[in-house]
Amino acid sequence: MINWKVILNIAKTHLITKMKSTITAALGVTFGIGAYITLVSFMTGLNQMLDDLVLNQTPHIHIYNEIEPSKEQPISRYDDFKGALNIVHSIKPKQGQKKIHNAIPILNHLKADKKVKGATPQLRAQIFYLSGSIELGGNLAGIDIMEEVRLSNMQSYIIQGSPAALKNNENGILLGAGVADKMSLSPGDRVQVSTTKGAIFPLKIVGIYQSGIAEIDNVQSYANLKTVQRILGEPENYVTDINVKLYDIALAEPMSNQLERQFDLKATDINEANAQFETGSNIRNLITYSVSITLLIVAGFGIYNILNMLIYEKMKDIAILKATGFSGVDVQLIFMSQAMIIGGIGGTLGLAIGYLLSTLIDNLAFETEALPTITTYPINYNITYYLIGISFALVSTFIAGYLPSNKAKHIDPVRIIRGT
Questions:
Q1: In whole angstroms, what is the distance from residue 30 CA to residue 24 CA?
Q2: What is the three-state SS of 285-321?
């Protein structure tokens, strides 16, 4: 029967008498795990921030009525003209195609679906911003601001003002940060917007919106849906876009295909809309995990080398233990226990150092005009990374201890004592 008390006492004595080697081995584990935790927390936090920057502003499914030429020209419907040369062709689509017909029933249908977290109507309009002698082209989107806040985290991109200020002001506008800078405007000021038909409407700036993407901020602004409908002279059921958020993003693609067939509308899922971005995100994650795994493997080889040398230094001790009645299994367990103690202590210290470094990075100031709502470097404190770290520390030290201790198990004590 294995006497664990004796085995652990001998293992402890070996570790204490060779304190320098013990500390070196433990530090190898500590810095390997610490570097892994710090790197993976920072890189995944950064990737998550970049993903959120795009995905928060992209609906899982975007439904709209795509303007395209008529598939069948009117003249081709007359049998009398079959085989004749058609002079009249390429009839242009009607302007009314921008509108989603039966938008309200479609919205109600989507909101009743248990897979749908929310569906919001939008009305997009091309406008001109007028302020004194300055005239800039841009886009004005009519939205349900409180639903956008609930579904798309929109409040994070409002750097001045508040969502409630827009909701409570029928003539309010959330002006894009790029537009505001170019026209020297701020909340409380008024800006005139002109439609493509020439109608001019004064709106009060109740907030500044900044997405962090300059191309958007230089043209995009938001107002209440009813406000934009009134500016365009359209009825309350006039909607050009419907944005859908799902509980499970994986359902976006099949559901978008179903909605296209069901309502004869164009439905673009988030993967199709952000195919390039998704590829970049996957590559960044691959690099992050590759570097992290490399760090752990390097730490594992360091542990193996140190324990291997430790066992060779303890050859005479091993011979004496065997000569006094310890079996090969007992000797192996002694060195395996040393390895696991080093792994446990080093891994725990590594997690602590990784957490402290991550916290330090998380509190470093991160100032950029493109992302004013983000004030510190992003860190992902996912508990999974810590579990992976301590698991690898224990597994790697187990393997690193097993291989040399297995050699020690078969050592012939007589040859060692004789010096042969």
A1: 10
A2: HHHHHHHHHHHHHHHHHHHHHHHHHHHHHCHHHHHHH
Pairing of strands 266-269, 61-64: antiparallel
Q: What are all long-range contacts of 354-361, with beta carbons under 8 Å and residues at least 24 apart?
A: 354/33, 354/34, 354/35, 354/36, 354/37, 354/38, 354/41, 354/386, 354/389, 355/37, 355/386, 357/34, 357/37, 357/38, 358/37, 358/38, 358/41, 358/42, 361/38, 361/42
Which residues is 50 bridged to in the sheet? none
Per-residue pLDDT of the chain (420 residues; tens, 9 = 90+): 677 788 888 778 877 877 777 787 788 788 888 888 998 888 888 888 777 776 777 888 999 987 666 666 666 676 776 777 666 655 665 555 678 888 899 999 999 999 999 999 999 999 999 877 778 899 999 999 999 988 888 888 888 899 999 999 989 999 999 999 988 899 999 999 999 888 899 999 999 998 877 888 889 999 999 999 999 989 988 999 999 999 998 899 899 999 998 988 889 888 777 766 566 667 777 887 787 777 777 777 776 777 677 666 766 777 777 777 777 787 778 878 888 888 888 889 999 999 999 999 988 887 766 566 677 888 999 999 899 888 888 887 788 777 777 776 776 666 666 655
**CB 58 within 8 Å of CB 270:** yes
CA pair distance 328, 198, nearest whole angstrom: 94
Half-sphere exposure in the Cβ direction for 379 (13 Å, CA): 21
Name which of 265, 215, 221 is nearest 240 in CA terms: 265
